[in-house]
Inverse folding.
């Protein structure tokens, strides 16, 4: 089963149609997505700022991580669930949306950055825990995280705009190949 | 809340800036995305202190120290939000006038800024919250509740 046929099947499910057409459920889920984004992004940024030595310089890095990470993780989980609900309400269009695809790629990169940070840099945190300005590797991880999450939020917001949608042809060939559109056929 | 006359909103919308943003394809979405980043930054600098007042998060740090550290980020991100928010407003002022979530948002924004830079700031700085944990929680809940109103109203303007 290809991804496209999966999202086409998803779009025929009654709960997908109901969520898409609901007057309140969809806006509420979207508001929850934005709210948990605030919790996640706000606290993740604070931790990144600490890694960069921009704020909370007297607070040990491990303490920031231990006390704030549960909130960041909690926010992230609700964000992913609400995001999946939003996706399932408009599956085909979102799947073929260039900003959505870019966002998923950036999420993957952010995940790799977190994995490298935790498996390499953070392992030796006791050697730089109380440093006002953490070592270079930690700063790079913090800066990358900041840039990636900002780009993820921006591209997420842009999903709402239909400039590059499949049903708006003609599009440059590069756009159609990135979005997986076949201009001659209808993609609805 | 004194509601300004509709003619003022129409005048805002017809200005050069508002018209320029409205006629551009990219400007509104880009400004809105920056506005959203600003919201996240505000959330971080508010949450770290309010969570502390509620007894969560960085509980080993004194609240006044956290608030001191967070304040420049709070002021910076609120400034970013007001700047981008004003631009968004100028491009669709008439829509805002008729949108009740817009009025909820502006009321909450006015109240939360007033509360944050008077009661909340003073209570934390004088270490009054340190000696009165129950009242510290009330302050945090008022702050979070009002910020919730600001963000909710903002998101809901778009759904009207």
């Amino acid at each position: 089963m290809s991804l496209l046929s999966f999202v086409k099947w998803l779009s025929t499910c009654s709960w997908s149609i109901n969520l898409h057409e609901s007057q309140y459920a969809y806006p509420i889920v979207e508001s929850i997505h934005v709210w948990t984004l605030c919790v996640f992004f706000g606290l993740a940024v604070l931790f990144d700022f600490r890694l960069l030595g921009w704020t909370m310089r007297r607070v040990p890095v491990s303490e920031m991580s231990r006390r704030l990470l549960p909130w960041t993780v909690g926010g992230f989980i609700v964000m992913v669930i609400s995001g999946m609900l939003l996706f399932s309400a408009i599956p085909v269009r979102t799947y073929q949306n260039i900003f959505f695809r870019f966002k998923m790629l950036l999420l993957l990169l952010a995940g790799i950055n977190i994995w490298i940070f935790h498996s390499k840099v953070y392992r030796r945190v006791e050697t730089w825990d109380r440093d006002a300005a953490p070592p270079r590797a930690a700063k790079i991880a913090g800066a990358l995280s900041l840039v990636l999450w900002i780009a993820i939020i921006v591209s997420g917001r842009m999903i709402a705009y239909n400039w590059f949608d499949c049903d708006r042809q003609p599009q440059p060939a590069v756009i159609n190949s990135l979005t997986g559109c076949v201009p001659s056929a209808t993609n609805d | 809340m004194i509601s300004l006359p509709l003619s003022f909103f129409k005048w805002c919308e017809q200005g050069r800036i508002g018209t320029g943003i409205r006629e551009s394809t990219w400007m509104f979405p880009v400004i809105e995305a920056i506005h959203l980043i600003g919201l996240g930054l505000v959330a971080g600098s508010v949450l770290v202190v309010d969570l502390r007042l509620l007894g969560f998060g960085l509980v080993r740090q004194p609240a006044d120290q956290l608030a001191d550290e967070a304040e420049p980020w709070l002021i910076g991100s609120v400034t970013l939000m007001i700047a981008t928010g004003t631009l968004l407003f100028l491009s669709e002022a008439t829509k805002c006038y008729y949108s009740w979530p817009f009025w909820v948002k502006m009321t909450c924004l006015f109240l939360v800024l007033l509360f944050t830079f008077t009661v909340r700031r003073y209570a934390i700085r004088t270490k009054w919250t340190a000696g009165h944990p129950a009242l510290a929680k009330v302050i945090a809940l008022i702050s979070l509740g009002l910020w919730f109103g600001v963000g909710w109203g903002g998101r809901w303007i778009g759904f009207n």
